[in-house]
Model the fold of this input.
Amino acid sequence: MIPDPRGSLASHWRQRKFDLLRRFTLPADLLPGSLTLSTTRCGKPTCHCAEGEGHPAWTLTFMSGRKRRVERIPREWIEHVRQQVEAGHEFQNALREVLTANAELLVLARKQRRKPRR
Done:
């Protein structure tokens, strides 16, 4: 069993970790990836897109089963999907910080370990 490290630095990492864990629950509707806007041309010679800007196309790009997926998102869903993607990023960042805090606490515990006497 690894002993809990002591001291102000250990206290700082534990406090940061538990602050993050209290802040986040795992919402069921988080989304990974990125939401992007691109433009496409429909190919009709009389359409405005033949000469000027194309038609807006929103896509969600994410990884699933080691494969990159790109899915078109309807215009009326954009704001909701954007919020879900942003919440997913916030959760991933918080999780990385918790994992980093755990690693820092492990390093502190190793440094504070008393060497056995011979």
